[in-house]
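User: Can you recover a sequence for this backbone? Please restate the input before giving your answer.

Assistant: Of course. Working from this structure:
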């Protein structure tokens, strides 16, 4: 299958996010946590790359995203930024970096932007962190909000089940989304909520919505690259579509390498100096 042909090679910015929503062009986003992967994704035409705190799961093997630190996020974000020319690079603010107060949130936001070189930050939460988000925006930093299933609150939820199925939570999510859009966020991630609600939110807000497990009515979609490429296969919620089976390809290739080394056939004469 041929890859997607990028007709516009200009750098994707927060302004272009709004332009894409206005003309009905879907926004593609994937996660990345290192230079090599980010470079490949960028060359493939993805519009946006997220340095998610999901690095905690994918790169470290933790059960939740909570252990990630500001320093670790900066490390991964710097690596990604070095590999990207076109995509809009968004970095998660990790757990504990903004929940303790407005000043702490602003200081950490500025530090991440200065030391990573990314284009925007993603922050989980609604009106509860309104003042922090406003101050970060006022500091000149683009913000992508994150509503619905917010993994940093998993201990509060106690489950990764679909959020906002009841009217009260759905109404709050809608009001949170409108508030975040009106305050000036350049995007809103909607995670694991009913497709009908995500479609309504997308119509109600000015900024683009990026869905993950939120149906096809959002302005764009995001997946964890390791899930999409089949590197991880023990996690299979219905919203994941696997476009490759790299897990087994890698296992087979490494197995062949080990066999060649054991047999003494690698390196051969042509591969030696």
């Amino acid at each position: 299958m041929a890859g997607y042909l990028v007709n516009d090679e200009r750098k994707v910015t927060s302004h272009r996010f709004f332009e894409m929503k206005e003309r009905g062009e879907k926004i593609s986003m994937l996660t990345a946590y290192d230079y090599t992967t980010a470079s490949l994704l960028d060359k493939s035409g993805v519009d946006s790359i997220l340095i998610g705190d999901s690095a905690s799961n994918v790169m470290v093997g933790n059960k939740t995203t909570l252990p990630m630190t500001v320093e670790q996020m900066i490390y991964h974000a710097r690596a990604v930024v070095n590999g990207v020319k076109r995509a809009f690079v968004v970095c998660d603010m990790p757990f504990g970096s903004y929940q303790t107060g407005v000043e702490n949130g602003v200081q950490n936001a500025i530090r991440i932007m200065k030391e990573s070189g990314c284009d925007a930050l993603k922050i989980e939460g609604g009106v509860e962190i309104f003042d922090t988000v406003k101050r970060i925006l006022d500091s000149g930093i683009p913000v992508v909000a994150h509503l619905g299933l917010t993994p940093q609150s998993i201990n509060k939820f106690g489950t990764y089940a679909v959020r906002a199925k009841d009217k009260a939570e759905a109404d709050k999510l809608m009001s949170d989304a409108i508030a975040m859009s009106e305050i000036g966020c350049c995007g809103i991630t909607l995670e694991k909520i009913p497709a009908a609600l995500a479609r309504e939110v997308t119509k109600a807000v000015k900024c683009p919505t990026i869905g993950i497990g939120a149906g096809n009515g959002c302005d764009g979609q995001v997946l964890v690259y390791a899930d999409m490429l089949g590197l991880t296969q023990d996690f299979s919620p219905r919203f994941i579509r696997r476009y490759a089976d790299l897990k087994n390809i890698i296992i087979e290739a490494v197995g062949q390498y080990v066999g060649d080394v054991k047999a003494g056939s690698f390196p051969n004469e042509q591969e030696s100096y």
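That completes the design. DSSP finds eleven helices and eight strands in the chain.
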